[in-house]
Write a sequence for this structure.
C-alpha cells in the first residue's frame, strides 16, 4: 500500500517537475535566442557597415555546410544523457562535454545517485545550475571586467600580434584535441588528405572554391568516411 | 569619438574592430543573455526543491548537488576564461562573452567566423579584417548558434515522446557523421593556415605540439586538470612564440 502510493506521488511530482521545467526552459531559451541575435543584427544592419543580405546568406551557407549536420546530431546525442529539463540549460550555457557533463556526474556520485534515476536527474539539474552560476560569475568578472581592462593595458603591438596569429595558435591545438578525442584513424586520415588536397591543389587551381572550401571538405569527409568505413562489424549483420 | 562609440557608427573599411565590437548595445544584449541564464537557474532550482522531497531526496542533497556542480566547474570555467581573453582582440568583449563563453565554444565559433571571413575574401585578424567582415562573421556565427538552439527547441519535445529512432535504427551513422564532420572542419581550417606565411606554419606546429604534449602528460601522469587547460596553454605558448617570430 504505502510503496504504491509513494511511487505514484513520486511519479506525479516528477511529471509536474518536467512540465514546469519544459515551460521555463523553452521560454528562457527563446528569450536567449532573440537576445543573442539582436546584437549582431544591430551591428550588421544598423551601424552603416553597408552589409547586404546576400553577404550574410553566403557566409551562413558556408557555415551551414560545415556545422549544419551538428545542429541536428548534437541535440540527438545529448538528449539521452541530459534529459529534457537539462537540454534547455545545456544548449544555452554551452561547453557541454567539457564542463556540464562532468559537473553532473560528480554531483550524482557525491550523493550516490545513479544516472537515469529520478534522484540522478534532479541532482544533474542542480549540478548544472551550480556550474552555470560559477561559469557566469567568472566570465563576467574575469573576462568582462578584468579581461577588457587587461587588453587595454597590454601594449598595442602585442595585441596586434595576438590578433594576427590567434587562428594558427588556436587551430593547431584544436585539431590535435579533436583527433585524440575522436580516436578514429580512418576518418582522421581521410579528413587530413582531403584538406591537403583542397588547400594545396584545388584552391590554387580554382580560387573561387575557397569560399566553400571548409564546407566541401566536411561533406566529402562524411561521404568518404562512410564509403570507406570499416565494414568488418557490419558484414555479420548484413550477410 | 565618444559619439561614434555610443551610436556604433561603423565604417565598412575600418580595421578598428574594438570601436564597433564594444558598443553599448552589444553589451546590453550580452548582459541580457547572462540575466536570462541566471533566471533560468533560479526557476529550475525552485522546481527541483519542490520535487525533491517526493523522490526521497532530502534538501541537503539538493544543496550538495548544487555545490558539487559549482566546485567541479571551477577548473573548466577558468580554462574557458583564459581562451576567451585570448580572443578578445578579435571579437571584442560582448561577442566573446556570448559566443565563446556561453552558447558556443572557442573552436566552433572561431571556425564559423573564419569561414565567414573567407567567403568575403578576408582573413580573421589580418589587414583584410574590416568592420564589415566582422559584422558578417558575427552575424553568421550567431545564426549558426541560433540553429543549434532552434533544433534543441524543436527536437527536445519530440525526443521526449520517444521519437529517437535514427539513433536506435542506425547507431553507426550517428557515431560516424559528427566524427567525420568535426575532423573535416578542423583539418580544413588548420591546413588553410599553413600556406599563409612561415610564421603561421611554425605556429600551427607549436600549437599542435603543445596540445599533444599536454594530453600526453595528462594521460601518463594522470593529471586531469591539464586536459582542461591544454587549449589555453597551447594558445598562450603559441602567441608568445608569435611575438618573438614576428619581431625577430
Amino acid at each position: 500500500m504505502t510503496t504504491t502510493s509513494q511511487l505514484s506521488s513520486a511519479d506525479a511530482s516528477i511529471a509536474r517537475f518536467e512540465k514546469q521545467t519544459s515551460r521555463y526552459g523553452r521560454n528562457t531559451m527563446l528569450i536567449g535566442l532573440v537576445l543573442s541575435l539582436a546584437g549582431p543584427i544591430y551591428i550588421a544592419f544598423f551601424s552603416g557597415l553597408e552589409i547586404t543580405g546576400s553577404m550574410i546568406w553566403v557566409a551562413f551557407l558556408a557555415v551551414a555546410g560545415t556545422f549544419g549536420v551538428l545542429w541536428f546530431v548534437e541535440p540527438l546525442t545529448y538528449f539521452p544523457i541530459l534529459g529534457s529539463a537539462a537540454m534547455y540549460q545545456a544548449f544555452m550555457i554551452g561547453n557541454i562535454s567539457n564542463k556540464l557533463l562532468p559537473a553532473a556526474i560528480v554531483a550524482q556520485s557525491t550523493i550516490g545517485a545513479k544516472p537515469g534515476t529520478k534522484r540522478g536527474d534532479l541532482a544533474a539539474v542542480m549540478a548544472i545550475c551550480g556550474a552555470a552560476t560559477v561559469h557566469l560569475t567568472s566570465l563576467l568578472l574575469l573576462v568582462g571586467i578584468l579581461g577588457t581592462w587587461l587588453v587595454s593595458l597590454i601594449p598595442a603591438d602585442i595585441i596586434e600580434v595576438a590578433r594576427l596569429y590567434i587562428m594558427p595558435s588556436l587551430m593547431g591545438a584544436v585539431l590535435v584535441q579533436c583527433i585524440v578525442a575522436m580516436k578514429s584513424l580512418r576518418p582522421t586520415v581521410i579528413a587530413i588528405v582531403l584538406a591537403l588536397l583542397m588547400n594545396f591543389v584545388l584552391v590554387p587551381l580554382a580560387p573561387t572554391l575557397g569560399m566553400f572550401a571548409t564546407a566541401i571538405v566536411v561533406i566529402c569527409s562524411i561521404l568518404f568516411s562512410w564509403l570507406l568505413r570499416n565494414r568488418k562489424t557490419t558484414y555479420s549483420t548484413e550477410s | 569619438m565618444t559619439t561614434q562609440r555610443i551610436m556604433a557608427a561603423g565604417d565598412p573599411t575600418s580595421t578598428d574592430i574594438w570601436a564597433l565590437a564594444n558598443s553599448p548595445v552589444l553589451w546590453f544584449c550580452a548582459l541580457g543573455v547572462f540575466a536570462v541564464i541566471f533566471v533560468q537557474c533560479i526557476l529550475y532550482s525552485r522546481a527541483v526543491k519542490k520535487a525533491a522531497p517526493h523522490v526521497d531526496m532530502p534538501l541537503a542533497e539538493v544543496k550538495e548537488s548544487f555545490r558539487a556542480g559549482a566546485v567541479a566547474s571551477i577548473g573548466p570555467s577558468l580554462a574557458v576564461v583564459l581562451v576567451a581573453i585570448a580572443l578578445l582582440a578579435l571579437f571584442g568583449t560582448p561577442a566573446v562573452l556570448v559566443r565563446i563563453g556561453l552558447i558556443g565554444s572557442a573552436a566552433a565559433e572561431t571556425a564559423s567566423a573564419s569561414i565567414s571571413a573567407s567567403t568575403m575574401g578576408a582573413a580573421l585578424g589580418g589587414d583584410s579584417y574590416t568592420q564589415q567582415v566582422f559584422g558578417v562573421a558575427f552575424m553568421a556565427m550567431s545564426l549558426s548558434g541560433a540553429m543549434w538552439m532552434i533544433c534543441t527547441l524543436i527536437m527536445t519535445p519530440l525526443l521526449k515522446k520517444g521519437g529517437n529512432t535514427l539513433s536506435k535504427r542506425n547507431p553507426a551513422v550517428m557515431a560516424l557523421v559528427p566524427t567525420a564532420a568535426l575532423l573535416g572542419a578542423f583539418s580544413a581550417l588548420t591546413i588553410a593556415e599553413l600556406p599563409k606565411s612561415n610564421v603561421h606554419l611554425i605556429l600551427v606546429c607549436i600549437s599542435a605540439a603543445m596540445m599533444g604534449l599536454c594530453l600526453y602528460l595528462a594521460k601518463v601522469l594522470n593529471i586531469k586538470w591539464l586536459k582542461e587547460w591544454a587549449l589555453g596553454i597551447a594558445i598562450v605558448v603559441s602567441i608568445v612564440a608569435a611575438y618573438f617570430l614576428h619581431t625577430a
